[in-house]
Write a structure and sequence with these properties.
2 copies of one chain form a homodimer. Chain A is built from 14 helices and 11 strands. Chain A has 420 residues and is an alpha/beta fold. Chain A has an 11-stranded mixed beta sheet, sandwiched between helices.
Chain lengths: 420, 420
C-alpha cells in the first residue's frame, strides 16, 4: 500500500515529485485495476498535468492523488451515484469536500465505485485480498483502491457502515470522523441525519495526515510518543453474530493494547446503546423514503430490488416512529458522553467477520449505532482470520474528539504490530 | 392573495379545478410579474398539463401550484442558484423537498428569484407593496409572488433571516420550521448547520396546510378553537435597532394577544441568547468558506463584491473559533428549552422595520439567533407602519414543536385582525 504520510514527506523533502506519485498509482492501476475494478472513471493524463502546478509540494496535501467515491459531485468527472438513473450525469460544481481537497493541494485521480446510491446492492468491485470476496460497501472502490496500492488517499461516506466495513474487509484504515467534521454538500444524500463523509488510507497516521491537511485541524498522530489511552471493550448487543475468529481478534487487540500499556476495561454494554441500535433503522428508513423521493417516484424501475424493497417498506414508517427514534438518539448521545467520561476510546469489531462472498456487502451491525451517535470511528488493521484474510477492529472515540480517537487508533495499530 | 387552504377546500368540494387555480395564478402573473419580477422561470403550459392528471383533487396538496426558490434543484427547470456560475444549470434530479411536493400532489409552476447563492446581494425582484422597496432576501421571489397573488404556496430557505425577513417586508406568512423538518438534500447549501427549508403562503392556516400536506404531519391550524397560548415578549439584544414603528407594532401585537386571552409575559432577555447571536456569524462564515469552496476558488470573479468580501474575511475564522461557537450553540439550545419550559411561544420582531430601499435586502438581526437555535418561526402579518407598509412580527416556538408554534401564530394573526 502507498503511505500518504511517507509520500508527503518525500515530496516535501524533494526526494520525489507529485508526478512520480501519480506514476506509482498508475503502475498499480495497470497491474490490478482490470481484476479489482475500483474505479468508475480515471484521469491519469489530467492528474499528470495538475501535478506540474507550481508550489504543490508546499500545500497541505503536497499534490497527492486522491480517489473520490462516486457519491460526491465532481465538475470534471461524471458523477453517477452508482445508479443508471444518473448515467452520464455531469454536475456543474464540485462537492464541498472535493473542493477542499483541491484547495489543500490534492489531485483527484478518479472516481471510485460506490454501490447503488450508497445502499446494499453489491458493486462490481472485487476484494484485493481475494477476488472471490466482497470488498464491502458502500465505499467499495475507495477501500479496494487503497488496499491494492492504487491510491494513497480515498474519500468515502457512511450512513450505516459504509466506511468502516469496507476498510475492515480490505485491510485498510478507514476513518469515519465525527458527524459533519468533513462537509457533505454535494454528497448524494441517503439519510441526512446519518450521512457522514470519511477517508481511507494505508495506516492511521496516513488517514490522520489526510484529515488534518483537508480540514486544517490538529489531527496528525505522527509524533514521537502517544500516551497510553484508556480503552473500554465493547462487545455490543450483536456479539453472538461475530465469527469465532473475530471474537478472538477483539481479544487479541485488547491484549495487545494492554501489553502496550493501555488501561483496558470492560464495562457492561449499556441498554441505551441497544435502543440506539434499533433507532438507526427507523431514522434511516424514514429519511431515505423522503430523501430519495425523486428516484423512487420517478425512476422506480431503475432501482435494484434490494433498494426498492427497502423503500417500499420504509413508506410505512410514521413521523411518530421517527420522532421517537430521534428522541432515543438524543438521550443515547448524552448518555454515551457520560458513559465515556473516563474512557478515551471503545474497542469493538469493525465487522462480524472477514470479507464475505460477493453476493452481499456484509452486515453493518457493528457500525450503525456509532454512525447514529456521530462519534469518530477508525478501522484498525493488522489482524487476520484463519485463512489469512484481514479482520478489522474499531476504535470509537468521543463525539468531537477526533484527534484523541486517531491517537488511540494509532496506539492500537502499533500495539497490534508489536504483538504480532 | 390566494389562500392555499381556501383553494384546497374548493378543489376538494369540486367547486373549482386545479387547472382553474393555475388560471388565477396566470392572471396575477400577467398583471404584475413584469413589474415585480418574482420568477426566474415559469412553465404555465406544463402546469396546465399536469393539472389534468387524474386524482389530483384527492392528494394532500390538491394539485395546487407551488413556486420553488431557485436554490433548490429541479429536473424540469434550470437551477441557477442566483449566480452566473450556474447559468443554464440543469440538475438531473429534483431536490428532496421538490419531490415531496410533487408526491403530495403539488404542481411546480416555476422557480422564484433567489439572491446570489442565498446571500445578501439584492436581486431583481421588487416589493409588491411598493416597487421602490426591497422584497427582502434571500427568498425574494417566493415572498413577492405570494404577496402579489401569483402563487398560493412558495418554498424558500433561511440561513440567517431569508424566510422570515422577506415575508415581513412583503406582508405574507413565512414559516421557518424546526431545523430539518423539511428535507434539504438538493438545496444549494451555504452553511449546513443553519440552512433550513421554509414555506410562504397568505396566512398562517395556509402555510400550516401546506406544511402538513408536504410532511404528512399534524400541523394544520384550521380547527374550531385554539387554546390561548402563553407568550413571552422578546425585545432581544438589538431592540434599539428596531424602528419606532416596529417597536409600537410589537406592543400592539402583544396587546392584541392579551386582549384575545393569551397570557403575555416579558422575561429578561437571557445572556445566553446574545452569546448565540454572536455565534451565528462565526458558524455561518466558517461553514460558507468551506461549503462554497468550489465557487470561491474556481469562480471568484463571478461572485458579487458583498459575497466575495464576506468569504475573504471568513477565511480567517479558525476551527477553534468555530468549535467554540458550536459549544456556545449547544449550551444555548439547552438553556432555551429550559427558558421556554412554561412558554408556548416568544413574540419578537421579524425585521427591524418595514421594507428598506432596494440597495439592501435588510438586516437579519431579528432572525439569526432563531435560525441557529433551530426553533420554528412564523412571520405574522396584519400590522403596518405609518406609511402603510407591512410590518411583521414573529412567533418563535420550541424546537420540534412546530404545530404549537403554528397554533400560536394563528392565534396571534386572528387577535391582530380583531384588534385592528
Amino acid at each position: 500500500m502507498l503511505s500518504a504520510l511517507d509520500l508527503a514527506r518525500r515530496i516535501e523533502s524533494g526526494e520525489i515529485t507529485p508526478a512520480a506519485v501519480i506514476d506509482l498509482c498508475a503502475q498499480a492501476i495497470d497491474a490490478r485495476e482490470e481484476e479489482i475494478q475500483a474505479f468508475v472513471s480515471l484521469d491519469l493524463a489530467g492528474a499528470r498535468r495538475r501535478a506540474e502546478a507550481a508550489g504543490l509540494a508546499n500545500r497541505p496535501l503536497r499534490g497527492l492523488p486522491v480517489g473520490v467515491k462516486d457519491i460526491f459531485d465532481t465538475a470534471d468527472f461524471p458523477t453517477e451515484y452508482g445508479t443508471p438513473i444518473y448515467a452520464g450525469n455531469r454536475p456543474r460544481g464540485d462537492a464541498a469536500l472535493v473542493a477542499l481537497i483541491r484547495r489543500a493541494g490534492g489531485i483527484v485521480l478518479g472516481k471510485t465505485v460506490t454501490t447503488e446510491l450508497a445502499f446494499l446492492n453489491p458493486s462490481k468491485t472485487h476484494n484485493p485480498h481475494d477476488a472471490s470476496r466482497s470488498p464491502g460497501g458502500s465505499s467499495s472502490g475507495s477501500a479496494a483502491a487503497i488496499a491494492a496500492g492504487m491510491l494513497p488517499i480515498a474519500v468515502g461516506s457512511q450512513t450505516g457502515g459504509s466506511v468502516i466495513r469496507p476498510a475492515a474487509y480490505c485491510g485498510v484504515t478507514g476513518f469515519k470522523p465525527s458527524y459533519r467534521l468533513l462537509p457533505t454538500p454535494g454528497l448524494k444524500h441517503f439519510a441526512v441525519y446519518l450521512d457522514t463523509a470519511g477517508l481511507f488510507a494505508a495506516g492511521v497516521a496516513d488517514v490522520a495526515f489526510a484529515a488534518a491537511a483537508i480540514t486544517g485541524r490538529d489531527l496528525r498522530v505522527d509524533r514521537a510518543t502517544i500516551a497510553a489511552p484508556r480503552i473500554a471493550i465493547a462487545r455490543t448487543n450483536v456479539w453472538d453474530q461475530a465469527s469465532t475468529d473475530m471474537q478472538r481478534a477483539l481479544d487479541a487487540a485488547a491484549n495487545a493494547a494492554t501489553a502496550a500499556g493501555a488501561r483496558v476495561t470492560e464495562p457492561a454494554w449499556p441498554a441505551f446503546l441497544t435502543d440506539a441500535f434499533d433507532a438507526h433503522a427507523v431514522i434511516q428508513d424514514y429519511e431515505a423514503f423522503r430523501v430519495l423521493a425523486f428516484e423512487y417516484d420517478q425512476h422506480r424501475e431503475l432501482l435494484s430490488p434490494i433498494l426498492r424493497d427497502m423503500l417500499d417498506k420504509a413508506a410505512a414508517v410514521t413521523a411518530d416512529d421517527y420522532d421517537a427514534a430521534r428522541r432515543t438518539t438524543k438521550r443515547a448521545r448524552q448518555a454515551l458522553a457520560e458513559f465515556m467520561g473516563e474512557i478515551d476510546a471503545l474497542l469493538t469489531p469493525s465487522a462480524p467477520s472477514a470479507a464475505p462472498r460477493p453476493d452481499t456487502t456484509g452486515p453493518a451491525i457493528f457500525n450503525r449505532v456509532w454512525t447514529l451517535m456521530g462519534t469518530p470511528c477508525v478501522n484498525v488493521t493488522g489482524l487476520k482470520d484463519a485463512s489469512g484474510l484481514p479482520l478489522g477492529v474499531q476504535i470509537v472515540g468521543r463525539f468531537g474528539r477526533d484527534h484523541e480517537a486517531l491517537l488511540a487508533a494509532q496506539f492500537l495499530e502499533k500495539a497490534i504490530k508489536v504483538a504480532a
